[in-house]
Specification:
This protein is α/β, with parallel strands linked by helices. The chain has 3 domains: 121 residues, 3-Layer(aba) Sandwich (Rossmann fold); 114 residues; 62 residues, no CATH class. 64% of the residues lie in helices and 8% in strands. It contains 14 helices and 5 strands. A 5-stranded parallel β-sheet has the order 2-1-3-4-5, with helices on one face. β4, α3 and β5 form a beta-alpha-beta unit. α7 packs antiparallel against α10, α9 runs antiparallel to α10 and α11 runs antiparallel to α14.
Length: 312
């Protein structure tokens, strides 16, 4: 289903920002149309919701509300309207023909917008939004871009295994271990900037603690889809970065494999980590890239026997 939304705002920057936030929240399921004024707007279309600025030059807030209400009465429809303006100002205005007042203060807070969308469009969490990774937040949390990329790489490389673990605990109705895994996902997601996924993981962590099985059953699939989308987002970002890196030399790669085998035999964590970090500076052939990712996942689990088996 595509949600058709209208924005009325004469400020082009604010329009673009709101449009981008709506796309972020709803992904491919949103169709946004922007207008500069109430008089220029096409009220006859089949809108699901409208976002209307109260501060359009030449129009008072009350005139904006009256103008929109007149158009809605003419159409014979009730459409949820979200007013863009200061809370205290909106509360002073006469607000007829609508059962509930929706208001967004500027600058718009993404979480507040999502809460309104869930209400007016009767949405649950959208996996497209849950797959959003805010890199700037991740870098701030990790302390540097280099540390962020290392954390994101670990998050992505171990993620699919963790998805299956959560799914299995869910299917087994093992709520204690389910809650432990969801708690860990909450923390790791927020570290790398996957804030929306982290918020949903926190909600399901509380549901697990309270044995709120209805909430767990309602939202676990969204959580797992969002987790998988975050993994793809990070992989895409890292692959884009890798396009500027040189292709690994075959001799160098063979030496790296040999060294990693020796370090696995010695269970030398530091030297193994050093080789894996060096390989991140090169583009690997597809088969070798998958092999190194598998080794990296085993390394994080201290599975040196598994590493030796892969390299033997």
């Amino acid at each position: 289903m595509v949600h058709k939304l209208m924005i009325i705002d004469d400020n082009n920057i604010q329009k673009v920002l709101l449009e981008q936030l709506l796309i972020k929240a709803l992904g491919k399921t949103v169709d946004v149309h922007c207008f500069n004024s109430i008089s220029e707007s096409d009220f006859d279309d089949d809108w699901e919701a409208m976002f209307v600025d109260l501060y359009i030059p030449g129009t008072t807030g009350q005139e904006a509300i009256d103008g929109v209400n007149d158009e809605l009465r003419r159409m014979g429809r009730k459409v949820p309207v979200v007013w863009l303006g200061d809370d205290s100002e909106v509360e002073k205005l006469s607000y007829a023909d609508h059962e509930e007042l929706y208001n967004l203060e500027k600058p718009i807070q993404y979480k507040v917008l999502c809460n309104i969308l869930e209400d007016i469009l009767e949405l649950s969490y959208d996996p497209e939004a849950l797959g959003w990774v805010e890199k700037e937040i991740g870098i701030a949390n990790c302390g540097s871009e280099e540390s962020y990329e290392a954390a994101a790489q670990i998050y992505a490389s171990t993620g699919r295994t963790k998805v299956e673990e959560i799914r299995q605990f869910y299917m087994d109705e093992d709520w204690e271990n389910y809650t432990i895994k969801v708690h860990a996902l909450k923390s790791s997601s927020r570290i790398i900037g996957a804030m929306e996924l982290g918020d949903l993981a926190e909600e399901l962590e509380h549901a697990g603690d309270d044995r709120d099985i209805d909430t767990i059953k309602e939202k676990t699939e969204d959580l797992l889809k969002g987790y998988e989308l975050c993994i793809k987002t990070i992989e895409s970002s890292l692959n884009k970065r890798d396009t500027d890196q040189p292709m690994v030399d075959a001799v160098y790669l063979a030496d790296a494999y040999s060294s990693m085998y020796d370090f696995a035999c010695q269970e030398d964590y530091d030297l193994m980590e050093m080789v894996l970090d060096e390989l991140k500076n090169y583009v690997l052939p597809e088969e070798d890239d998958a092999k190194v990712k598998e080794i990296s996942e085993m390394f994080l689990r201290w599975d040196f026997e598994g590493i030796k088996e892969v390299l033997s």
